[in-house]
Fold this sequence. Notes:
This protein is mainly alpha-helical. Helix 28 runs parallel beside helix 30. The longest helix has 19 residues, at 285-303.
Amino acid sequence: xxxxxxxxxxxxxxxxxxxxxxxxxxxxxxxxxxxxxxxxxxxxxxxxxxxxxxxxxxxxxxxxxxxxxxxxxxxxxxxxxxxxxxxxxxxxxxxxxxxxxxxxxxxxxxxxxxxxxxxxxxxxxxxxxxxxxxxxxxxxxxxxxxxxxxxxxxxxxxxxxxxxxxxxxxxxxxxxxxxxxxxxxxxxxxxxxxxxxxxxxxxxxxxxxxxxxxxxxxxxxxxxxxxxxxxxxxxxxxxxxxxxxxxxxxxxxxxxxxxxxxxxxxxxxxxxxxxxxxxxxxxxxxxxxxxxxxxxxxxxxxxxxxxxxxxxxxxxxxxxxxxxxxxxxxxxxxxxxxxxxxxxxxxxxxxxxxxxxxxxxxxxxxxxxxxxxxxxxxxxxxxxxxxxxxxxxxxxxxxxxxxxxxxxxxxxxxxxxxxxxxxxxxxxxxxxxxxxxxxxxxxxxxxxxxxxxxxxxxxxxxxxxxxxxxxxxxxxxxxxxxxxxxxxxxxxxxxxxxxxxxxxxxxxxxxxxxxxxxxxxxxxxxxxxxxxxxxxxxxxxxxxxxxxxxxxxxxxxxxxxxxxxxxxxxxxxxxxxxxxxxxxxxxxxxxxxxxxxxxxxxxxxxxxxxxxxxxxxxxxxxxxxxxxxxxxxxxxxxxxxxxxxxxxxxxxxxxxxxxxxxxxxxxxxxxxxxxxxxxxxxxxxxxxxxxxxxxxxxxxxxxxxxxxxxxxxxxxxxxxxxxxxxxxxxxxxxxxxxxxxxxxxxxxxxxxxxxxxxxxxxxxxxxxxxxxxxxxxxxxxxxxxxxxxxxxxxxxxxxxxxxxxxxxxxxxxxxxxxxxxxxxxxxxxxxxxxxxxxxx
Length: 840
């Protein structure tokens, strides 16, 4: 899978891993620790971190060092100029000391300390926040708790007024759970003349507002920075590129990258990562790789001759990147993985190990997801072993990915075992864990296992989403437990939270399995709740169509207007396709015209369905009228429409009409397919004309060159040659068919038998008849008509042939044996001969 360099894992400084927040889905998103802790050699970084522990705080309970910026996301706040870093850390001990003197008053006046220590105030969320806030040390936890419990900012921050440091202001802004509160605090700081708000504070607010998609606020903040002369720094551009990209505004993100380039500002590693992420999110993997390589080359040139070089050497035309952060490596691995470049994934991971960068859980999760999705479960197992070697414990997301991958590869037992292992590792399965396994159980009809999981989710008050709910409805239906399926549906209906998508999914589940009554009941439930949308109508119309209740389908469609629901393209298509497929083109035609009047016909598919239905009924005139109507409305026919009409007129022997549609198709620039060529050959076989034969031969040769010549086209050519008395060419076709194994159906056998009988090749007739019987193809009246002609040509009286036919009709098996014996005797063929001779 990947290169496995000789590696002494004991040299790595491995951080203890706590549980991570539950993911929103099984997919992997790259988010890694701050860059400021990853650009130094690991041992040096460890010493530095331990030296600063009195400042950043040590959480002894969990035996790890916590820094205020130790989240799993790239930290743009910590990425500053040297000057800003110095001012940021200006005499922190003095400021903290001064602030601690007010703590006692806070505790006595507001009892915030007791509330802070009470883990039951806001449940689990409060407990998590308390643990994180405590890790900051000093008075920051009390400030954050005061802001959480006291709305008025003057009152909440009064004990620390005029003493809040730059660093503390940054933390306060970052820790706000809502953008409104963060903006309120930001404005409060600005109103207090004693607080200077620098570019770092503005960066924090840009990120907060950008994540909330408050683009007008972002623009206002940028205007304010311009007015105040606060220059944009590297991390500002990185922040803007990141938030606009993640907000779905890629053009705006690219605009900020261009502005950065116009200023002659080179992206640093964090900004480079944001740009790569932007291209990755847009699916432009080549652009992502090209940007990284260009950035790598510039950094290599700029760092040449210095101790701290961002990029290493150039080997074989590709960049070897060293001393990058784990975040950058993870981003590259994820980008290569999404692009399907597994070789580059492997090489990047190997390079990461060679450079001494410790892969974290995000790294492994990303790689496990990549290799698992590419059906390389052996590599997934290798990665799990590597995690163990590096003492990097799996987290909840790791197990979620493993559950998903093994369920996807139909190893449900292994998937379930990882769910158990997660619990054994003292990790709490999250909602994704349950939903993934529950869905896997449902599609396999593992009812008891699914119900056990549902009971566990109910005990934990975990919500079952509508997608999983409808999957379980299908499970019960397909398991033959119709009553249980209805009770399951009613549980969610009565809860009153089911959306239109949920109702339509359940109606569809019943309709697809032919349970029309239950589908109608579910539709009525939706009607009672006054939640009817076009979705419910569409799936109910589909259900009626599948159940052949065409009158009800039309009635339901016509009632949409009463319920103030407008039919959409899917509504019309569903009804029209059902009616056309039921040989009711006359009923479908008015709905097609209504669809056209509503401006919902964007392609020829509905027209093709109705035209095909008229053709099937032999009403070619109506099919042509509809075709002309389609052209009149500027709806362009496709190759399938032309194919239907060409084949219809070919069957009718109407050369002029068939050729005219073929010419119209070529004029429209549409290439003919094998079906159309076969239709034309079939047409030419019905016309005894030398010019038609030549055209058929040209088409046949083209089909052979493209590999599209099939048994039917060979049979048609044989018929054409036979009708034109060209027995030599017909016999050659028969020989090719036999050599290619293209005599498998009754039509082919009868045509070959008829040819041999007409040409007096009696041994071949007997041999082909034996092959036909041995292959299990049942002869029909046409077969025995050809065989009877052979017998009479050999002098057998017609009375004897009629007697053979009478015997066959009385007893098919004994009659068949009588025919076989008579033919062999008359044609002089022994039972062990196969009739492959060249003549009679």
